[in-house]
């Protein structure tokens, strides 16, 4: 594969400013890296906020130094590999997990890379000031023709998964990782707040594939909720939060016992009361996981949590191993991602694509940039 000396990338120079198309030198992979020819990079509703408001809302979670190439969820083809990379080769179809860690701290050494203090999303943001070193090591995201990533971050994708679907693996995987944390499986009933959104639909898709008996989904838009129910009418029940109590809905469908697991997929603007209702829906010994990141302090009865032997987790992303599991599930036919409605844009239209995401079909919509 011939690799050009230069490439086109979209860079942000000022917070809130439009991304500019620029010609940059094509990066070269290090010994344990791969160079990926990006075919699709996912963009989600939160991207506009990241670019315009993040430094004001979350100053402790830094953006990469500007100017920077953003782009969180890239998929493409391996163009070149470093001399110490043996399990990948040019031509491999891949998804790039953007989660980066130092690789050598005690958390990384025991496989808990997301707990690393240097953890950052390549092409997006970091979780502490220590992420700045991570950005220096891997500065460029997926809104470019080529990008470099460590070989350990690569997920091989099957032939029946297109690049647009692969570019959704990060957000689908956030839900999948949460399902694994609650040990979701046969016999279980799982409540998903925000089931029709970008994260929630992943909980529905992979919850079904993992054998969850019953999925209870909440949201606002009744039409979207009915479309979610249609995915598995005998296993999914839906409820609009405009119609009453989420806890009452959950108890009705569990004979008063409560759900085994509760996944909250509501974003920063979500209602605190809806989250609390989800906690009240848990059975004794039940597990709650927040993946949507409702903003602000939420009042929780910790005494009740202890008395009922319940657990509450925060879950930030997925591991590369989990990404590979998901890709393998698609490859084997256990999961079908054809329900995603992919809308592709060329790199030249990146700004209009980001501003137009609000007009979407809930979590079914899948927006990607194709450099």
Automatic annotation (TrEMBL):
Instruction: Tell me which InterPro entries the record gives.
Output: ADH-like_C, ADH-like_N, ER, GroES-like_sf, NAD(P)-bd_dom_sf, Zn_alcohol_dh
Q: Key word Metal-binding present in the record?
A: yes
* Residues of the Enoyl reductase (ER) domain: 16-361
Q: Which Pfam families match?
A: ADH_N (PF08240), ADH_zinc_N (PF00107)
Keywords, alphabetical: Metal-binding, Oxidoreductase, Zinc
Q: What is its EC number?
A: 1.1.1.1
Top EC class of this enzyme: oxidoreductase
A single GO molecular-function term is: metal ion binding
> PANTHER family, alphabetically?
L-THREONINE 3-DEHYDROGENASE
Per its record, how is this protein called by name? Alcohol dehydrogenase
């Amino acid at each position: 594969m011939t690799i050009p000396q230069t490439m086109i990338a979209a860079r942000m120079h000022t917070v809130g400013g439009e991304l500019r198309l620029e010609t940059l030198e094509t990066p070269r992979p290090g010994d344990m890296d791969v160079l990926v020819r990006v075919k699709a990079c996912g963009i989600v509703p939160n991207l506009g906020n990241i670019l315009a408001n993040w430094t004001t809302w979350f100053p402790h979670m830094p953006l990469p130094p500007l100017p920077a190439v953003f782009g969180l969820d890239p998929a493409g083809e391996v163009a070149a590999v470093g001399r110490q990379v043996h399990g990948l080769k040019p031509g491999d179809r891949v998804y790039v997990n953007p989660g980066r860690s130092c690789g050598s701290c005690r958390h990384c050494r025991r496989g808990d890379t997301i707990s690393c203090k240097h953890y950052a999303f390549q092409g997006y943001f970091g979780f502490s000031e220590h992420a700045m070193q991570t950005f220096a090591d891997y500065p460029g995201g997926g809104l470019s023709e080529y990008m470099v990533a460590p070989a350990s971050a690569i997920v091989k994708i099957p032939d029946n998964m297109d690049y647009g679907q692969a570019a959704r693996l990060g957000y689908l995987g956030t839900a999948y990782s949460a399902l694994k944390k609650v040990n979701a499986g046969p016999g279980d009933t799982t409540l998903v707040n925000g089931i029709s959104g970008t994260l929630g639909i992943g909980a529905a898709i992979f919850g079904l594939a993992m054998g969850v008996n019953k999925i209870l989904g909440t949201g606002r838009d009744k039409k979207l909720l009915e479309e979610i129910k249609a995915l598995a009418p005998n296993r999914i029940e839906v409820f609009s939060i405009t119609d009453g109590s989420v806890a009452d809905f959950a108890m009705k469908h569990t004979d008063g016992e409560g759900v085994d697991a509760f996944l909250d997929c509501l974003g920063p603007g979500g209602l605190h009361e809806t989250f609390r209702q989800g906690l009240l829906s848990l059975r004794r010994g039940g597990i709650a996981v927040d993946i949507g990141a409702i903003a602000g302090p939420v009042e929780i009865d910790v005494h009740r949590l202890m008395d009922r032997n319940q657990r509450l987790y925060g879950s930030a992303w997925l591991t590369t191993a989990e990404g590979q599991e998901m890709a393998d599930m698609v490859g084997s036919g256990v999961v079908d991602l054809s329900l995603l409605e992919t809308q592709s844009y060329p790199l030249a239209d990146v700004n209009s694509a980001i501003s137009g995401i609000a007009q979407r079909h809930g979590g079914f919509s899948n927006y990607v940039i194709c450099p």
